[in-house]
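step: validate -> pass
step: tokenize input -> pass
step: predict -> running
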Amino acid sequence: MTATVPPERRMANDIAANLGHLPQESAAEAVAGHIGRFWDPRMRSRLLAYADAGADGLDPLVIAAVRLMR
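step: predict -> pass
step: emit ->
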């Protein structure tokens, strides 16, 4: 049986992949901005909780964005 990937992890990593062409700091700001503008507060909370639980599988750019979101 395969473990399912939390949708917040998958979506955040997809956003990071699409914005990864930007310089690191700008990309982290863009990821945080996108999540802040377009994600439901419950989704943002689950992403933050996932990051707090070890951030297993999160793109480093997403981790940087999470730091900015706090």
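step: describe -> Residues 24-38 form the longest helix (15 residues).
step: cleanup -> pass
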